[in-house]
Amino acid sequence: MSDTLPTPDSRTPTPPSPTGELIRFDQVSKRFGENTVLDRLDFSVEAGKHVTLIGPSGSGKTTILRMLMTLTRPDEGTITVDGRRLYPAKRREVAEVRRNIGMVFQQFNLFPNMKVLRNVTEAPVTVLGLSKDEAEARARELLELVGLADKCDVYPSQLSGGQQQRVAIARALAMRPQVLLLDEVTSALDPELVAGVLDVLRDIARSTDITMLCVTHEMNFARDISDDVLMFDGGRVIESGPPERMFEDPTHERTREFLGAVL
Ligand code: ADP
Fold first, then answer.
1. Which residues, judged by CB distance below 6 Å to any ligand atom, belong to the binding site of ligand 1?
2. Which of 4, 25, 29, 62 best tests ligand 1's pocket when mutated (most atoms within 8 Å of CB)?
3. In angstroms, what is the C-alpha Rg of the chain?
4. What is the pTM of this model?
5. ipTM (interface pTM)
6. Residues in contact with 99: Cβ distance below 8 Å, sequence separation at least 6, in sequence order
7. Is residue 106 within 8 Å of 61, Cβ to Cβ?
């Protein structure tokens, strides 16, 4: 991919926000050829909040998560995470931001050649420098949290899709990230496996202070966990608010149309 590498160069440090703002997009634009995906997008997320991005397919939601993971670079605008500017940024600082952001994808992306426990311990050992014992203790706690304490010694291929996704959630949390990005984490699952994964995420949302940015079509789930819902269309946020208001009384015609189609 051509746009994956951050530029190491002079970064202007941005002071931490006094408002508790953790993520900020300022006038961010992104084009793929002729296709303007994000158009001077502004939004911010406060630390500890759970924010859901909704909107039609192709409205740029995944692109936003990928930018936070420094997998896709914006053409214009600034993105800051915890006061650190991401583009441009020094390689070391990008690594630090990425360590603080966990992402769970639609496809679970587990390491197929490693047993479940090792999937969860690998990054804490190699990236954070935890001892094997420390990493294993943390991994066992997290596997318990996602209901898979008894699956430490099996390979991912021996698990259902829902179980694999729960391992992927434990693996993301093992890095103790400040932010958890969830990109349509149930859309590749058989319908009967969806509820188990969403229940685990509800638990995490309730019991931790992690900041969550979530792309989902599961509107009941969004309603349960979100502090704020952002509706995307035409490369911008066209409407946002608490889930009760957004789902019960959307003001924008496009939001009404979209919710009418998915609810
Ligand atoms: P959403 O998550 O809202 O469905 P995406 O962020 O995945 O939207 O995609 C927004 C638009 O950007 C889509 O039209 C998609 O085809 C396009 N797009 C995303 N990534 C690329 C890429 N690497 N190259 C070309 N087009 C892309």
1. 32, 35, 37, 55, 57-63
2. 62
3. 18
4. 0.91
5. 0.98
6. 127, 128, 175, 177
7. no
Question: What does the DSSP 8-state code read for residue 81?
Answer: E
> Looking at ligand 1, which residue's alpha carbon is closest to its atom 15?
58
User: How far is 226 from 246, CA to CA, in rounded Å?
Assistant: 11
- For a mutational test of ligand 1's pocket, the pick from 2, 31, 34, 37, i.e. the residue with the most ligand atoms closer than 8 A to its C-beta, is 37
- pLDDT recorded at residue 4: 40
* Torsion angle of C-alpha atoms 211, 223, 148, 119, degrees rounded to 10: -40
Contacts of 211 (CB under 8 A, 6+ apart): 22, 23, 45, 46, 47, 48, 49, 50, 178, 179, 180
Instruction: Dump pLDDT digits (tens) for 50-59.
Output: 999 999 999 9
Q: Looking at beta carbons, which pairs linking 237-242 to residues 24 or more positions away fall under 8 Å?
A: 237/41, 237/42, 237/43, 240/43
Residue to substitute in 39, 57, 63 for testing ligand 1 pocket (most ligand atoms within 8 angstroms of CB): 63
The 10s digit of each residue's pLDDT in 164-210 is: 999 999 999 999 999 999 999 999 999 999 999 999 999 999 999 99
Tell me whether the omega of the peptide bond preceding residue 6 falls within 30 degrees of 0, making it cis: no
Nearest CA to ligand 1 atom 27: 32
Q: Whose CA is nearest to atom 14 of ligand 1?
A: 58
> What pLDDT score was predicted for residue 19?
63
